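idk why but the lab printer keeps eating my pages so im just putting this in chat instead. protein + carboxymethyl coenzyme *A:
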Amino acid sequence: MAKEKPDAAEKTFTLTNDETGDSVKLPVVEGTCGPPVIDVRKLYAETGHFTFDPSFTATGSCKSRLTYIDGEEGILMHRGYTIEELTEKSSFLEVAYLLLYGDLPNKAEKEKFDHSITTHTMVHEQINYFYRGFRRDAHPMAIMCGIVGGLSAFYHDSLDIWDPQQRELSAHRLIAKIPTLAAMTYKYSIGQPFMYPRNDLNFAENFLYMCFALPAEPYKVNPVLANAMDKIFILHADHEQNASTSTVRLAGSSQANPFACIASGIASLWGPSHGGANQAVLEMLDEIGTKENIPEFIKRAKDKDDPFRLMGFGHRVYKNRDPRAEVLKSAADEVLADLGVNDPMLEIAMELEKIALEDPYFVERKLFPNVDFYSGIILRAMGFPTSMFTVLFALARTVGWISQWKEMIEEPSLRIGRPRQLYTGPAERPYVPIEKRK
Ligand code: CMC
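predcted complex ->
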């Protein structure tokens, strides 16, 4: 187990009220790496003031041992291992074990974990009928929100969040079943029969099989695609306290069951500023259409009166490079070469990237291509429709969500998350009877 720094606060930060001259010493806490934090938990009791940070640009919401991001340097690490090393040497299920349990598994632990996940991939047969209530043209993320939220109606024996074995069973069930549900969602949307999971295939192979095989003929999984799929899953597995993960933690802090919490994460991920960006990137590239149109879209992205943004550009934390985008770009090259795909979208994407990276607007604001910029191109080449892109993100991120949830529940100081606000509505005023209102 990697050694952690103690969080005993030896340093302090003094805050002085300019009006009264009163000052308060706040503890400063250091993590293993990254900037120290000022512990403001006693601020209100001692000063009568709250902090104000609406989009959490300067707020650490929890302690976590899972993932570290250095946005300036473009570093992403899970439990101390860099994302570059994990995508090159590890596998998605091994990364899932690492995130859930803290260390890489030994051989016996890996076999036991793989076996548990593989033998939980089937879903309750009744769930098949649940799908039939949805319209065939429903967005797959809408189906995923409903189906995953409904899982707690099927797995009553793993809902006690205070029982470590039930927590583990729920975590394994979620990691194992979300790919099956994602594939069923896809099959449902194209009117094809559901394919049951196959235990002789690995995680990524089985997912591709459930999406693209048909009962009427044999299906051979392309190893290049399975390898790229596994990498994509690793790249999306966890990303510390982003919007969907914070949503899962907030939902879980009320002691809601894990299936409900993961459904809340899926809902939060859906938005185009977050996981929905991979779909939005391809829609944008489609709209741009040809290289000649790029300057017009760059102009629109810079225009403050136009809500248009270059999708796949920018990140709240990364201000130099998104390390995931670079791994994805090389995986995209491998897949396109293997499939012999000559996607004109790739050419537009590369030209757009080149122009944006030289434009002072993007340079000054440190806007770089993020993970979603290339993921759409690779997923499209694999045969997924754009509406499924965010579902694949949700599938992989389930590992991060459930690991973060487990970490939070196991924290002895768990309390319900409850932010405060800066109230700007009317002060107290008397009720006016309707006949006297203007
Ligand atoms: N196109 C044009 N301008 C942008 C973009 C963009 N994609 N992103 C940020 N800006 C500008 C923004 O207008 C602002 O300019 P100014 O300072 O003049 O007002 C400045 O850059 C800072 O932007 P912000 O909105 O304050 O940054 P944020 O940290 O709140 O938002 C973001 C981060 C990812 C939501 C945003 O960059 C964005 O909307 N990007 C496009 C959507 C996208 O690709 N999302 C996927 C993120 S990575 C995967 C994931 O985490 O889910």
